Amino acid sequence: MTESIDTATSSDSGSPEGFHFTNRMRSVCEDMASRLPQLAHIQMDRVAISFCQARKSVSHGLQASLTPMRFEDGDRELVQNGQRWRVQQIRNRQNQEMLYLLNFYLPRFQDQPFGEKLVTILHELWHINPTFNGDLRRLPGRCYVHSASEKEYDAFMETLANEWLARNPSRTAFQFLEMSFDDLQKTYGQVRGLRIPAPKMIRCG
């Protein structure tokens, strides 16, 4: 079994022409992390960005997801039922280990309203642990991922989105988020990007 995924050999759908979705999404995420002090802990060069094709062309459903590449407190291994497990690694072209995998589901994500796209991006970035240890941010209480109220969680993400826009990011960098998936295809001919297979759980020993 392969123990790591090399992003250099992962699928980059389409020819060199067209709109490179994952590269452009990386630029947006890097800008958010650089302008928002709440995200200053994020090292985007250790976050892999990929896209998945949504199975159904409906507006509801999963828009994006963040996969932590390590376990609680950044542990590399998890002991479960007497067995030790770890997550298959993702490595970039420089053979650097990625600590998170950020996926966007197309065309569903791109067909959201502009403001909701920003909330979705920030929603996933906020899940990154403040110590950037490969684990999720763990909030107090039983609902440690989104807190007791996901509505309040998303309201906070909207506040962050407005704060980011108020810091005057280049509109050229994020203008594509104002377009639908069909608009991107009509404008650029095709939408392409990096597709990284879901990491597997590997048994140790």
What kind of oligomer do you see?
A: single chain
Tell how many strands the DSSP assignment holds.
Answer: 11
Main sheet makeup? 3 strands, mixed
Q: Which blocks of ≥5 consecutive residues have pLDDT under 50?
A: none
**N-to-C order of helices and strands:** EEEHEEEEEEHHHHEE
User: What's the number of helices?
Assistant: 5
Tell me the strand percentage band.
15-25%
Question: Any idea what the shape is?
Answer: globular
Distance between the termini: 13 Å
Domain unit count? 1
Averaged pLDDT: 89
Care to describe what's here?
The protein has 205 residues and is of the alpha/beta class. It has one domain (4-204). The chain is built from 5 helices and 11 strands, in the order E-E-E-H-E-E-E-E-E-E-H-H-H-H-E-E. The protein has helices spanning 21-35, 114-126, 150-166, 171-174, 181-188; strands at 4-6, 11-13, 19-20, 47-53, 64-68, 78-80, 83-87, 89-91, 100-106, 191-195, 201-204. The strands form 4 sheets. A 3-stranded mixed β-sheet has the order 2-10-3. It has a 3-stranded mixed β-sheet with strand order 4-9-5, with helices on one face. The chain has a 3-stranded antiparallel β-sheet with strand order 6-7-11, with no helix packed on it. Helix 2 crosses helix 3 (150-166). The model has no long low-confidence stretch (mean pLDDT 89).
Break the fold down into its secondary structure elements and pairings.
Layout: E1 4-6, E2 11-13, E3 19-20, H1 21-35, E4 47-53, E5 64-68, E6 78-80, E7 83-87, E8 89-91, E9 100-106, H2 114-126, H3 150-166, H4 171-174, H5 181-188, E10 191-195, E11 201-204
Parallel strand pairs: 1-8, 3-10, 4-9
Antiparallel strand pairs: 2-10, 5-9, 6-7, 7-11
Helix pairs in contact: 2-3
